[in-house]
Amino acid sequence: MIQKLLIANRGEIACRIIRTARAMGVATVAVYSDADARALHVRQADEAVHIGPSPAAESYLVGDKIIAAAKQTGADAIHPGYGFLSENAGFAQAVIDAGLIWVGPKPSSIEAMGLKDAAKTLMMEAGVPVTPGYLGADQSAERLKKEADAIGYPVLIKAVAGGGGKGMRKVDKADDFETDLQSCRREAKASFSNDEVLLEKWITSPRHIEVQVFGDSHGNVVHLFERDCSLQRRHQKVIEEAPAPGMDEATRQEICAAAVRAAKAVDYEGAGTIEFIADASEGLRADRIFFMEMNTRLQVEHPVTEEITGVDLVEWQLRVASGEPIPLQQDELRIDGHAIEARLYAEDPASGFLPSTGPLDHFDLGSTGRIETGVAEGDMISPHYDPMVAKLVVWEETRDRAIETLADIAESVEVWPVKTNAAFLANALLEDDFGEAELDTGFIERKLDRLVGDDAPDDAIWQAAADFTLLDALEETAPAAIGFRLNAAPRVATTLCYKGESRTIAVTGERDAAHATGFVEDARTVVFADGQSFEFALESRGSGAAAAGDGAILAPMPGKVIAVDVAEGDTVTAGQRLMVLEAMKMEHALTAPFDGTVTELAATEGGQVQVEAVLCVVEPAEE
Asked: Which ranges of 300-446 does DSSP label H, i.e. alpha helix?
C-alpha cells in the first residue's frame, strides 16, 4: 500500500483526497502556489511544499516542480486529482520514470483518449456508437466551414484536447462559424496549448449521460452505473445526479456495457468516465445514445456515484494504484436511492455570472448533506483558479426528496462578500420541469431569466434588515432604557440604503422575518435569504459604484484584454461587443450598454487590467 501520497492539486479535490488518505493511514503532502500559501488543503495535509507563483502555468502545471516536491518529502505516489495535469500523459510517464506510483490510468490510456478525434475513431473500432461529425486532419478554416455546412446547423465546434467545457462553441448559422471558430481556437490554445478542433452534429434534445468505470492491473473492468449531467451553463456542469432519471434497466445495461467496452479498448486502470450524448426527444433509448469522450481521471461529480453505491472511489484509486484488484465485482454493485450534486460557484448570476473574488468574511454552508469544499471562513477566492467554492451533495431514498433537501441547503447558504450562485441553484432544482425530469442541456439557457431571478430585496428582506439592525444595537445597550419590547408595537425605526434606495422602516423585533439570517458589522447590515446576500448601508449612503447609465465600461474582474473590437470615435449599438476580457480561464465579452459613440478607449489588446478599471466610455446617442 502507498505510504505517503503527494496531491498534485488544490482546493476541494485536494481536501477530498486528504480525507480518504488519512482514513487509510496514508500520509499526505500538499503543494501550493503563492496564492494558496494559507489554503485549506495546505492546512489539512501532513506536509506542504511551495511550488511557485500564483498562475497555474508557473506552479500547478509545472510537472518537474511537483515531482521534485515528491522526492523532497519522500512521497512514493502522486495523485493528480482532476484538472491541471490529471490527463497529461507526459506528466504521468514522468512520474513513473521517477520511480513513483502514478494514481491514475497508464499514460498510453490517457494518450489514446486525450484527443477527441482519435478517441472517437478508437471507439468506433470497439463498437461504441459515436456522434456524426468531422474528425479530419485538415484544420483550415475553409475545410472546417465546408464540413460544418455539410453536417448542417446547428453544429458544435470542440477542441480535440478540450475538457471542462472549454474550447466549445455551438454555431447556429453559417454566418457565425468563422467568428466562433476563432474564439474556440483561442480558448483551446490558452487552456490546452492545442487549437485543433473537431465538429459534431448538434443534437437538438440532448441529455448528457456518463458512466463511471473502474479498471485494475489484473484485467478487471467494472462500471458503477450512470450519472445525468444535463444541467449545464456554457458547457460547464452545474447539477449532476445518479442514477439518470427515466433510465430503464435495459437501456442502462446497454450503455454501461458500451462504457466497459470503451475502457477495455484502452486497457484502462483506475477511475474513468465515459461520456455520452443522448438524443432524448423520445426518452432515453440505447440506439440514440452516442459516445462523446472519455475523461481519464476522477470526475468532479464522483460523489453522487459514491452516494448511490456506498463506494469510496478515492480509496479504490489508492488500492488499485498499489497493485490490488478492484474491491468489488460487477455483480456486487447495486444502486441504492438517489443522489444529487450542485456546484456552488463564486459568481454573480445577476451580473451575467461574472466570477466573484475576494475574502470569505462570512462562510456558512450549513451542516446538512455532504459538503465538499476547499475553503473556510477567512480564506480567499482567488482570480487565478476555477471559481467553484463547494459541491453540495445529498442522498435520499427518492429523487423528489433529494431535490427538496438540496434546494433547502442551497437556500441556506451564507457567503459574504463574495457572491455565489446558491439562489440560482435552488431555483433550478425547484423548477417544475426539473422535478418532472424534463431535462436536456439547453434547460438552463431556456429558463435563464427565471432561474436568475431578481437580486433586489423585497419588502420582507428590507424588514429583516431593519430588525437585525435595531436588535443588534439594543443588545449592546439596555432595551428597557428606550422602551423596546420584542413582539410589541414598533416604537423605533431605522433608515437603510440599498444600492441608492433609502427606506425608513419601523422595527417589528422579529429576527426570523422572511426566514432570513444576518449580521450587523460596522456601518452595514447583511441579510441572507433564499441563497442570496443583501448588504444594506446604515443611514442614507450611496454605494460609490459607477452609475449604470454613465457609459463607463468597467473591468468586472482582474484579467487580460484579448480582443478590442472598437476604436475611439466608433459608433456602436446596444449589445455590440466592445472587447473581450480573459479571466479565470474563461472569455468574457463586454458590450455597449446603449446606442452611442466610443469617446474614450483605455484598453489595449494584451493588456492586464484590474477590477473596476475604466476600459472605455460610450457616450449615449442623441435622441
From this structure: 302-309, 313-321, 399-411, 422-430, 432-435, 443-446
Contact in structure between 98 and 78 (CB atoms under 8 Å): no
- Peptide bond preceding 620 in cis form (omega within 30 of 0): no
Half-sphere exposure of 499 (CA within 13 A, CB side): 9
Buried b (16+ CB within 10 A) or exposed e, 404-434: ebbbebbbbbbbbebbbbbbbbbbbbbbeeb
Q: Which amino acid is at 280?
A: A
Q: For residue 297, indicate whether it is catalytic.
A: yes
Whole-structure pTM over 0.85, yes or no?
no
Distance from the first to the final alpha carbon of the chain: 75
Strand partners, 381: 358
538 grid coordinates: 446604515
**Which band of pLDDT confidence, cut at 50, 70 and 90, is reported for residue 490?**
very low
* Pairing of the two strands 517-521 and 524-529: antiparallel
- CA neighbor of 340 nearest in space, from 210, 223, 239: 239
111, amino acid identity: E
Q: What residues pair up with 28 in beta bridges, in sequence order? A: 5
What's phi and psi for 142, nearest 5 deg? -65, -45
> Which of these is catalytic: 297, 319, 343, 503?
297
> Which residue from 221, 285, 219, 280 is spatially nearest to 255, judged by alpha carbons?
285
**Cα 437 to Cα 254, 301, 432, 621, distances in angstroms:** 21, 19, 9, 47
And the C-alpha cell for 201? 452534429
> What is the percentage of the chain residues whose pLDDT exceeds 70?
93
- State which H helix or E strand residue 348 sits in: strand 347-348
